[in-house]
Amino acid sequence: MYEQLKLDNQLCFRLYTAARLIAGAYGPYFETLGITYPQYLVLLILWEKDQQPVNDIAKRLYLETNTVTPLLQRMERQGLVTRVKGEVDTRQRIVCLTEAGKAMEEQAKDIPNQLGAEVVKHVSADELKGIIPFLDKLIEGLRD
Amino acid sequence: MYEQLKLDNQLCFRLYTAARLIAGAYGPYFETLGITYPQYLVLLILWEKDQQPVNDIAKRLYLETNTVTPLLQRMERQGLVTRVKGEVDTRQRIVCLTEAGKAMEEQAKDIPNQLGAEVVKHVSADELKGIIPFLDKLIEGLRD
DNA sequence: TCGATTTCAGTCGTACACGACATAAAACAT
DNA sequence: ATGTTTTATGTCGTGTACGACTGAAATCGA
């Protein structure tokens, strides 16, 4: 039995599990809104700045375009966004919020704090603050 | 623009991204072995203790059985495990390593350290140590 | 300027991940 | 003992994720 092969010694497993469980904790909120976690991330990006090409959204999420494209197509079917041909660069597809997509920001604005309250039951806000730079360095380092 | 809705203020997005990027960093190693990241986790569990029912594996990974079952079926097709009916409780399916599955432990034993060396290029080993209890508390709290 | 290269978005195939549901077997209650 | 409930596993449908690849458009290079 190699010590380094124990599941409990794997940082990666903890990250993978924590990410899934937190996404799961968002579940009830997203169900109400009729969206999923990755769709929520796309909305966050578009609420910050509307009308972005697929590529910018994908890069921001560190996802491949072949993941983001179907995701956006589903969001378009649900009436949250539209995808219009770029005028300057016709290869691009510019993703724009619909009125329904814009309106959802009001519905979503309390979600982070409610989730935060849930999380802080288990870990202190200070610990939470400490984790952020660590994850940022990790992400930056593995970005490729 | 609600401050709490900025992507950069979301802990969850960092966890989600870090988990995906680390799993991606494992990619080349797994490709050599012909397995995936979740399959690797199952192998870790079985290398610790062979012959476990589906449910124990699922609980250990915090996954649903309807995720683990197909995963095990694929691993069976690849000749890494067998799934035999439980003798005490015939509802159970006991998952057993094949010789190929056991042999893979030798092939995998250096992966964690090699990955660790990669990660430590970007974050110190101390920071890494500090993150573990945080993630454990988070996971325990959200376990449900 | 025009052929080679790169970039943008997309399709396709495979593998998770999970909610809803199904089925059989074990455990429980009366 | 037998009907009810719970448990273990599984199927099915939907939605990510990503590698390999494609087609069209922009860019680059000689």
Description:
The structure is a homodimer of 144-residue chains. Chain A is built from seven helices and three strands. With 144 residues, chain A is mainly α. A three-stranded antiparallel sheet of chain A has the order 1-3-2. In chain A, β2 and β3 form a beta hairpin. In chain A, α3 packs across α4. The model of chain A has no long low-confidence stretch (mean pLDDT 94). The structure holds a DNA duplex (30 and 30 nucleotides).
Characteristic terms for this protein:
mainly alpha, homodimer, globular, 3-stranded antiparallel β-sheet, 144 residues
Topology:
2 copies of one chain form a homodimer.
Chain A: H1 11-33, H2 37-48, E1 52-53, H3 54-61, H4 65-77, E2 81-85, E3 93-97, H5 99-108, H6 111-120, H7 125-142
Antiparallel strand pairs in A: 1-3, 2-3
Helix pairs in contact in A: 3-4
Chain A binds a DNA duplex (30 and 30 nucleotides) through residues 20, 24, 27, 36-39, 53-55, 63-71, 74, 86, 89-93.
